[in-house]
Structure prediction request, 380 residues.
Amino acid sequence: MTQTTLPSPAAAPLATPHPIPVPHIAAIAFPALPMMPEENGAPAASVTRLNLNESATPPSPKALAAAQAALEAAHRYPDHHALALTTEITARTGVARDRIVLGNGSGELLVQSALVALSAGDAAVMPSPTFPTCGKGVQMAGARIINVPLRADGANDVPAMLAALTPDTRLFYLCTPNNPTGGLLNAADVAQAIAEVPDSCLLVIDEAYHEFAAQEGGDAVLPMLAARKGPWVITRTFSKAYCLAGLRIGYALVSDPGLAAGFARLRHNFNVSRPSLAAALAALQDDAHVAQSIARTVQERQRLAAALAPHCAQILPSFANFLTVRLHQPAAPIVAALQAGGIAVQYLGWPDTQGAIRISIGDAAESDRLLAALIAAVAA
Prediction:
């Protein structure tokens, strides 16, 4: 049998190759992830972790029991629609289930907020410094960040941020209370942003510390957003007041079902685990435990602030589970000395070259250890 060899087709011209990772991904600026030593699957006892704004209070026993029970069905995927949890969130917020989105912590939702709103070349107005994760999403989208300095009290400067709007701004990010400084926006600030951020721009309000602010008399943001015609997102988390940082679950309340559908298109399948969903629902329903957690944290924060005051140049007002303090000397060497002694805190290059220190609120023993070490480092 005779075989016929067909001529090879002409090779298509090769496209000009680009680097991998692509340049705008390789250029993303994001703080280095902190070292978090662990021993036998738990935080190392040799390190006092006051750098991550974790809760010093363990989760609700009801949440732990719910997570343990959920493990019995760990061989099955969780409810992708999270019917039980979103129904409870609706009951507590008044926001319909088709306007609620769940995430692997609120950080995932902040990245998605940027991706759903921005195209390459767009701009996002953000306070500086603030929680960096939404800004990471801005860079992933190929957009640019317009940073606006905070007010002296550590809160977002809404009038200055509004003045920084440009025709290509498509995202306006507020964080209240602001991380890493603890400053809280009042109703007038929020109302001005709601009224003056263009309808062509997504207004994102990060409320990771919402429960602390609400407990201490902060103005409720969610009801005010009914006056806004343009799109908006509020992000919240179970990591802080609900003491579930290790289970990675948060949620977003959004302005309309169409925007929620945009988040759903970005969402990875089954991005929140079965134990996380169960624990979050039980924690949300355990009002007594969350109230106790907040009260204990606020009491310890006030005690630590009073003890630190004689040794600091400034302690910023805080409505969260951390304190930001300024010393009479550069902060970086003090942070390094604390780290060398097994105490982790967060250095801030703000508001000037002398910097500041963010201290998460631990338990009484952790606060006392931090206080003694900081006094010794300052004296040295």
Summary: The first strand starts at residue 38 and ends at 39.
